Amino acid sequence: METVTAMRPSLTRLFRLLAPVLALMSGLAAVPAHAERVKDLGTFQGVRPNQLTGYGIVVGLAGTGDDSIQYATEGMKGVVSRFGLTLPSNINPALKNAAAVLVTADLPAFAKPGQRLDVTVSALGKAKSLRGGTLIMTPLRGADNEIYAMSQGNLAVGGLGVSGADGSQVSVNVPSAGRIPGGATVERAVATGFDTAPTLTFNLAEADLTTALRVADGINRAFGDSRARATDAVSIAIDAAPGAEQRMMMMGMIENIEVSPADAPAKVIVNARTGTVVINGAVKIHPAAVAHGKLTVSVNESPRIVQPAPFSQGQTALEQSSNISIDEQKKPMVNFKGGASLADIVKAVNAIGASPADMVAILEALKQAGAMKAELVVL
Question: Rounded to whole angstroms, what are the CA distances from 197 to 6, 123, 237, 241?
């Protein structure tokens, strides 16, 4: 009884010391590993940018335009016709200070009339440089051929092109393309239809059944009901009441829900042109042994001149002399144990001195032997 009484205070002090540690461990266990926000995993269907394209004329160039290119001339005739000026059909203006260009921009989701967009202007013909040019008012059209924005402004060109009288040229970056920050004004909005659709649909950026199920489960746990369900490996359908305001509030809450996405499938990416090999951490190697060697055969030709013996009336001849050498580098055999990780693979490949090209051959051989259960993607 005396021993038990003596040990009780020490146990009490031990529990007091361990209580904060146990609480911290339980809190860490409740946080999902590698949790990511839903907004980083995909987007809502219909909430996306739309591409706009337009054909225009850039003027004010210092003799670096399209000269007498026909479509540049026709474009300039269309520009001056807006001001009541008509060029005679038999007149061909040498437009060295103008260039035909294509104007591109992205119209963000929910963009409203009056908002500004950045545009990219690219030369369409033989213009050498767009530096110092000004884009004349150009309508930007969508895929339905409707006008959604109007663009105009001074170009910011990062490149530089200089040519000499003898035909020599020097170019820095690309002077035939430039940008106009805020160079377009939105004229009409694009209907997304998110507020009238029967359900909201969230699409994952990468198809994965496990991630789709986890996103649907995370939404249901956050709202305390079963409004979300995974319809396939990409889409999660979410029941929502009609109305833009209510759906916007729910979409904002869903985007900030944190879920733990599924681990990426085991993949080995090989770029045969550059010799780049990328192996993700999910790749595992089953028991296998790899031996790598390099055999080099060298043939050196050293012809020599042979002189005839004195007074033999012979002729000088050329005699071939070949020297063949074989150099074989012996490398040790590496044994991969079952469940070898990425670090083990890298360590073993470095140990045998394999180059990126040799690594490709080793990985392909492991795949064919069934020792590497991973998808081998050759670019």
Answer: 72, 41, 11, 10
Tens-digit pLDDT profile for residues 213-253: 999 999 999 999 999 999 999 999 999 888 888 888 888 89
267-271/375-378 β-pairing: parallel
- Exposed (0-12), middle (13-18) or buried (19+): which is 29, by Cβ within 10 Å? exposed
Report yes or no: 41 and 205 within 8 Å, Cβ to Cβ: yes
Mean local confidence (pLDDT), 349-376 = 74
User: Of the candidates 54, 184, 191, which has an alpha carbon nearest to the alpha carbon of residue 115?
Assistant: 184
User: Contact at 8 Å (CB) between 255 and 214?
Assistant: no
Please tell me whether residue 7 adopts helix, strand or coil conformation: helix
- The pTM of the full predicted model, rounded to 2 decimals, is 0.62
Closest CA relative to residue 115, chosen from 190, 187, 191, 51 = 187
Contact 234, 185 (CB under 8 A): no
Tokens of 367: 């795949």
Closest CA to 152 of 171, 138, 170: 138
